[in-house]
Design goal:
- It is a single chain.
- The strands form three sheets. Strands 1, 3, 7, 8, 9, 11 and 14 form a seven-stranded mixed β-sheet that branches.
- The protein has seven helices and 15 strands.
- It is α+β, with helices and mostly antiparallel strands and 280 residues long.
- A hairpin with a 2-residue loop joins strand 8 and strand 9.
- It has two domains: 27-174, Immunoglobulins (Immunoglobulin-like); 179-278, Tetratricopeptide repeat domain (Serine Threonine Protein Phosphatase 5, Tetratricopeptide repeat), CATH 1.25.40.10.
- It is globular and about 60 Å long.
Amino acid sequence: MTSTTTAIATLLALVMTQAAPARRSKVRLSVTIAEYYSTVYVRGPSGGADHVLLRGQPLTLRMSIVNHGEDQVVRLRPSDSAAFSVHVAAVGSAEPVAQGVVWPSPRLSGSGRQGPQTLPAALKQRESLQWDANVPVFQQLPAGRYRVKADAHVKSTPGGAPEVNNDSLVIELRDIAGEAERVELLRITATRALSNNDLTQADAAARQLLAAYPQSAFAYMLIGDVAVARKDVSAARAAYVAAAKLLGSRGDTLFAAVATGHQMSETIGAIDMKMAALER
């Protein structure tokens, strides 16, 4: 009789557990590249790499921990002196050839909250903490493909160690081997300045690009974007028209040499949208 009662109780407990599963904490770790402006004048990544960086471009990673679970609040604490460590190794090798320098203070974003944060910290649902890491010696490595991996030294309550969504990227480092790479680096410099809202530097860098390569449709696009930011509609329109003509005639030969038909059409379409926005 006792054994029968115990068996029934065990069965009921199992049914109740299946009917009402325990809440799960899903704190996920993801790694992305923090600064990337795609490729225009050089071919995209090869050999399974995620991104291409030219010699002269900084390598900055962004590590994110997000509360994707059902728990309203997850508390994070460091399990070591630093929340992350970053290591770089050549693809196919486990031996690190460089390390990253991780910013000690992350930024909090989501749920209307944003700004600097420290550990320990509490994350609400869908909120994230983001750390940036620079790899200053990356540019000193030989050209090739490298796996950049971040190891988290963070624990959550509840949940323990973060669930890894992705913790590494493969970066292809290329030398400045010819005109296309030199022009690309100038384009990236101008684009970075525009992204940082440094209009003076963006305009100067775009005109430097145009001086080095007068057929650059992207130089005119950047000049147009700066003019829009300065509310100079006439100058913006003239720049966009020049860019569209170069693309339509395939006069931007460096871009035409690497762009697919879809990329060419997409770029022309983007200029058309910029032009249309000027009329509003």
